[in-house]
Write a structure and sequence with these properties.
Largest sheet: 2 strands, antiparallel
Order of helices and strands: HHHHHHHHEEHHHHHH
Structural class: mainly alpha
Mean pLDDT: 78
CATH topology of the largest domain: Arc Repressor Mutant, subunit A
Strand order of the largest sheet: 1-2
Number of strands: 2
Number of helices: 14
Oligomer: single chain
CATH class of the largest domain: Mainly Alpha
Length: 250
């Protein structure tokens, strides 16, 4: 995105413009917005690869910025930017949440929240990530209930989400799923990845979700499942082959 160049404002200038804006000065309000566009853009970049154009999210972020300008109290003992950042991020997250095509029941959301709390408690108690079985036992649930609640509460992940990037080109989730031959995309476009994941055995499904949707390392997954890193690597390859086969065979 090519943003117009506006000067950075110092705190006294910002406070003066805020006073004028609150008194109804439209030009002062516009200047505050324009001089904070770079802040909005830097925050919007956190939400890349969510299935939305950056320009669209930038517009949503600007709405958050304008709300921050309108609601900021000059008696606050904080910088305007400190106040504006959570307002902008909150506006973007609210948009992503409300625009989410996957609707999850309140009871499932509450269960997922309890599971996250128990996970944190067990992590502190055990000094490591708890397994699904340990979380299930702590909540007197079966493993399937825990897995289903966590999966349902997850936001959909784009197949173009960046999994890794160093000095070269980024590696997308798509790169991990496609075959060796060119032109292998039709089978990927024809069916939902989520539906395919549901057809995998529980352990394979967990490995794929943790590896590619939560960006966990094979070592972390190995510790969760009580396996070696080599075993997880082998299971991951086998699971990807199963996914490709399921997609090709519909």
């Amino acid at each position: 995105m090519n943003l117009p160049r506006f000067p950075l404002l110092k705190d006294p200038e910002i406070k003066e413009l805020l006073k004028k804006a609150k008194a109804g000065d439209g030009l002062a309000r516009d200047k505050l917005v324009n001089c904070n566009l770079k802040l909005v853009f830097n925050l919007v970049k956190r939400f890349q690869n969510r299935g939305y154009e950056l320009e669209d999210l930038f517009q949503i972020g600007c709405i958050g910025l304008m709300k921050a300008i309108d609601k900021f109290d000059l008696n606050y003992d904080v910088k305007f930017s400190t106040y504006a950042v959570p307002m902008i991020v909150g506006e973007i997250r609210r948009f992503l949440r409300d625009d989410n095509p996957v609707k999850v029941s309140r009871s499932v959301k509450e269960l997922a929240y309890k599971i996250q709390q128990v996970r944190e408690i067990l992590t502190a108690r055990l000094g490591r990530e708890p397994s699904v079985g340990e979380i299930a036992a702590e909540l007197s649930l079966n493993r399937e209930e825990v897995v289903n609640a966590l999966e349902a509460a997850q936001a959909p992940t784009s197949i173009y989400e960046t999994l890794h990037q160093d000095d070269g080109d980024p590696i997308y989730l798509l790169d991990q799923l496609k075959g060796e031959e060119e032109g292998d995309l039709p089978w990927l476009e024809s069916i939902s990845i989520n539906e395919i994941l549901q057809k995998l055995p529980e352990r394979d499904r967990l490995i794929i979700i943790w590896r590619f949707f939560e960006d966990k390392t094979q070592s972390v997954i190995a510790a969760r499942l009580g396996l070696s890193q080599v075993q997880v690597s082998r299971l991951e390859r086998q699971a990807l082959i199963k996914i490709k086969s399921l997609m090709e065979n519909g």
